[in-house]
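One record is given unchanged without comment:
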Amino acid sequence: MAGAAVGVSHLVQSTRAGAEYGLSLLGLVLLACLLKYPFLEFGPRYAAATGESMIAGYKRLGDWALALFTLITLATAFIILAGVTLVTAGLTGVLFGLDYPISLLSALVLGGCMVLLAVGRFRGLDLIMKLIMMVLSLSTLAAVVFALGAQPDWEAIQGAGRVDALWSAAGLAFILALLGWMPIPLDVAAWHSLWTLERARQTEHLPSVRAAVIDFRIGFVGATVLAALFLVLGALIMAGQAQNIPGSSVGFAALLIDLYTASLGDWSRPLIAVAAWTTMFSTTLAVADAYPRAIKELIEISGAADTGDTTANLPRSRYLSALTLLSIGALVIIHFFGDRFTGLIDFATTVSFLAAPILAWLSLKLVTGPHMPEAHRPGKGLLALAWSGLIFLIAFCLVWGAWHLV
């Protein structure tokens, strides 16, 4: 989950937020992470408590709930996979010095993901991902410390952080786009429940609710801290220079690596390039795995396919067919819209934000329903935070609707 979270929302959107608005959005980013926490935690909580995925739980709520989740999944799958692939492709071009069209770079990235997922060698990949995340975390923290010690232009940072600029059409649009994937889309709650069960099948041990929640919190807190660090880094180094942010993914990837190099020195460029690329590749890999896994689960639970096999022994063709279809769809989007990098990312994150209240409400209804063991239902504090988060998400969606109507 943490590997999936630290990607576009951090490397792109948080950095842009700091560059364009200084530190003005730092509090809002932290608030969004806090208010989204309950709904993301409900995924591993439900799976550990019931031994089934949240998607199966939606079916228990009724066909209407499963249909809503299916609609949101199909509406966001292609655009989200295209968005994360585009950033990874940009970093691929910079890291390996490949002066290829972005469509070709994206095809190489997705092709690599398909090979890894088809082979299914997850354990080694899981270890590598954790090591790279540690390198990126320490590097980002070091970059912020060095940037603070380099006498940043506080006047430029303060000028970039004018609050009145946030109430413009462009400011509101960017806030919605920033919060859409901050720290990660709410779809991940259902994904996490599937990953929790898959891990349980590998280890032949279903974790306790306490263990599953603690494991989730470690990744969530790390992803939140990194989101704040990327925003601060963007403000310290790029504030007042927002007009120079490239519109292409390759250009932005090069600029991102330059951020670290400017703070840490030229010696860090290879290390940061590899860490940033691997982080984004792990994000793309997680998304490329999650959507086919979710679609496979939807097909089985809806009764559209024979479910005589266990999930672990399910015909691989179903999963691989969904993976292939999603990859082709993402590449089509990149081919036609890949040259409008920031616009595509903003659109993808905005769609995720508009879907968030529905997913939040479904998750809240599920973990407080009769099938959830009473001992493992959210406590009063967590429920209060969840209701506050739901109101927050609905309010921002209403602001978006009102802004488009006037």
